[in-house]
Specification:
By secondary structure, the chain is α/β, with parallel strands linked by helices. Helices cover 39% and strands 14% of the residues. The chain folds into two domains: 15-265, Type I PLP-dependent aspartate aminotransferase-like (Major domain) (Aspartate Aminotransferase, domain 2), CATH 3.40.640; 267-381, Aspartate Aminotransferase, domain 1 (Alpha-Beta Complex), CATH 3.90.1150. The chain has helices at residues 15-27, 37-57, 71-82, 97-108, 126-132, 155-164, 249-265, 267-285, 316-327, 339-345, 363-381; strands spanning 2-3, 65-68, 88-92, 112-116, 137-143, 168-172, 191-195, 207-211, 291-294, 306-311, 329-330, 353-356. Bound molecules: pyridoxal-5'-phosphate.
């Protein structure tokens, strides 16, 4: 099998991740619940995971790392905990449904929403953000990179504009954390939402939020935290403020192992490796008649490890099936949970065939995919 669907989830995990999950399942008690050795081990391991993530993104304080089940959970918590009826929020056509659907839900209850279109380079132009701000604007939710094209948004320029107006910048880093270096301080990000099971190489069921200490998010859930038992309310200090109920300490142990692996290996190295492979792949694919590319390819500009194509007007789902049948190549067709981006790209009906890499992807695998696509193109055209 040639696995090229890492934007959906990374299937190949380092052995240290697997070992950490097994160890946690065998030894971890319930973090923050009691002082037994096993409960303390879980607490320590979770705090170390916060430290590793905080180091990876250059956050202000490990206690500002909140654990969730996935990016969808993070985004719902943040969006519903920050915005209410009467607020105006800006977002973009590049967003995943995990941003759009919570915002639509709030819109049905009186939130005002502006959705910005992409420019000719397939990303959000900061000037359009400036032009959209109104007196009730509270913030902007924006993806770091498109999950369809891999193109990266100019986050720093956008957060600078937002902060000139005292607005919050919330970034969905689901496709970039672990494969593109992220420094929340340098990028001036107020809230970063991420998932654990893609480029962070952690288990599914893990994700998180980084919240700048000055940002107050109203808890979406309330319940047990192991502290302040007799209070009627969720504690206000982070991370307990947004973490009700038993944490997934087994998954978090695996996630921490993935993050530590990346810190040692170097996210820069992952980015350079994937970008180099993508450039080779892009060049080789150009020889296929009627191939269509989506995204703005510039060999010197950062992009995450995604390349999406179509073969003429053939349905992306057919091409995806052919790749599996002919060479066991796993990609993803269809809508990728990003409906507005497909509308912007004109691929609502056809979808696109998305290839997504990891640092485990080999050049030979991509060459097999190129040859296979050539054959598919030829056979379908006959
Ligand atoms: C840009 C983006 N945001 C959010 C998500 C949702 O991630 P999860 O499935 O971990 O909730 C994804 C997953 O595909 C994504 O690509």
């Amino acid at each position: 099998m040639i696995y090229l669907d890492n934007a959906a989830t990374s299937l190949n995990k380092p052995q240290v991740v697997i070992d950490a999950v097994i160890d946690a399942i065998q030894h971890s008690g319930n973090a923050g619940r009691g002082s037994s050795d096993s409960a303390m081990q879980a607490s320590r391991s979770i705090f170390q995971a916060r430290q590793s993530l905080n180091q990876l993104i250059n956050g202000k304080d490990p206690r500002q790392i909140i654990f969730t089940h996935n990016a969808t959970d993070s985004l719902n918590t943040v969006i519903k905990g920050l915005f209410k009826k009467g607020d105006h929020v800006i977002t973009t056509v590049m967003e995943h449904n995990s941003v759009l659907r919570p915002l639509y839900e709030l819109e049905e209850n009186g939130l005002e929403l502006t959705i910005l279109d992409i420019n000719s380079k397939g990303i959000i132009d900061p000037a359009t953000v400036n032009n959209t701000i109104q007196s009730n604007t509270k913030g902007m939710v924006i993806t770091h990179a498109s999950n369809i094209t891999g193109d990266i948004n100019p986050i720093k320029e956008i957060t600078q504009i937002l902060h000139q107006h005292n607005l919050l910048g919330i970034v969905d880093a689901s496709q970039t954390i672990g494969c593109i270096p992220i420094d929340v301080e340098a990028l001036d990000i107020d809230v970063l939402c991420f998932t654990g099971h893609k480029s962070l190489l952690g288990p599914q069921g893990t994700g998180g939020i980084y919240v700048h200490p000055d940002v107050e998010i109203h808890p979406l859930k309330s319940g047990g935290t192991g502290i302040d038992t007799f209070s009627h309310h969720q504690p206000l200090d982070y991370p307990s403020r947004l973490e009700a109920g038993t944490l997934n300490s087994h998954g978090i142990a695996g996630l921490a192992a993935g993050v530590n692996y990346l810190i040692d290996y170097g996210v820069n190295k992952v980015r350079d490796y994937e970008r180099n492979l993508l450039n080779i792949f892009y060049k080789e694919l150009q020889s296929i008649p009627q191939i269509k590319f989506y995204g703005h390819f510039n060999p010197t500009v950062d992009r995450c490890g995604i390349l999406s194509i179509n073969l003429g007007d053939f349905d992306s789902a057919i091409v995806v099936e052919e790749l599996i049948d002919r060479a066991e190549i796993i990609t993803r067709g269809g809508g990728h949970c990003a409906p507005l981006m497909h509308e912007a790209l004109g691929t609502k009906e056809q979808g696109v065939v998305r290839f997504s890499l990891s640092h485990y992807t080999k050049k030979e695998d991509l060459m097999v995919a190129v040859e296979c696509l050539k054959d598919i193109q030829k056979d379908l055209s006959e």
